[in-house]
Amino acid sequence: MLLILCVDLDDDLGRKTDCETPVVGRDAVESAAVELATADPEDSDVNVLFEGVHLYDSIDDEAVEVAAVTGVDGSDVAANRAVGEEVDTVLASLTASEDVRALLVTDGAQDESVVPVIRSRIHIDGVHRVVVRQAQDLESMYYTIKQVLDDPETRGTILVPLGILLLIYPLAILANFLELPGSAIGIISGLLGLYVLARGLGAEETLDRTVDRVRSGLYAGRVTVITYVVAAALMVIGGVSGVRTVESMAVESVAEAIAGLVFGSVRWFAAAGITSSFGRVTDKYLSDSFEWRYLNAPFYVLSIAAVLYGVSSYFLGTATIEELAVALTAGTLLGLGSTLAFAIAETRWQGADPV
């Protein structure tokens, strides 16, 4: 008996329709193909299912059956295991007494990666790859490129490395303070690289979401909009302060440079963290979703800042080992104390106002 096996490794059929897999029988596979084509006409697995039906109708000199098996979306290992289990189900449903042979129908090399799993269960006569014929004109090329740019998987695997490669040359130009004759070419290449990299990472979508959140925050009167701006300004000031601290030192090692950078910026960064966390807590209180443990954030920031300040001071020689021990102990106790205090407060006054 010949079993025509349509393989859908990423389970487009199960995710986009209400069909339960595996699908066995000509009419069932044809119905599943129609449902998938209705849900997503551009899905290539539609052609795989219809090709399986076509092969079934074209073979009339021997016992033949057609079935569709699917995997899962995401993990290749889990997908192969799921396909193997569905193949076992299909084989168990067949009543043929003779040996069953399979003809696989796929839409590309990715689905064919499951061939060894299927071969371990049934003899495979061949693999039939479905290729859709399309007009090779300018409009088709434009549509293909547009689809590539909009596909998250393609963006991550192709466009991100390409964007990084395009950024190499302009970074080399910037390293020489843009004084080389080819600086103009480097700037152009850098702009192209930034665009491709942004497309690959989906940065334009992130930017749009950020703008929408800021706009809704302004209209809703959220305090975090102001505190985040202030925190960003404080972080910039902290970065500048850290750089100036390093410049004013006679740095002799990388460790000292890092310590100077932390020493000069940690106070500003702590102020930024406390400002943003209090803004967040205020918004939670105003929206009636406040919980006592939210107040841990500013104390955690102070705790971390105390530890970093003590360690950096010790490396710079401005603090003794005893003072470092005091800073570490104080930071640890501050974090533990706030956690315990607000946990008790939340247990006693759960649902009550924090004031």
From TrEMBL:
Annotated TM spans: 156-174, 180-198, 219-237, 257-278, 299-318, 324-345
Domain of life of the native organism: Archaea
Keyword Transmembrane helix annotated: yes
Protein name per the record: DUF373 family protein
This protein's UniProt keywords: Membrane, Transmembrane, Transmembrane helix
Family matches, as Pfam families: DUF373
Record organism: Halomicrobium mukohataei (strain ATCC 700874 / DSM 12286 / JCM 9738 / NCIMB 13541)
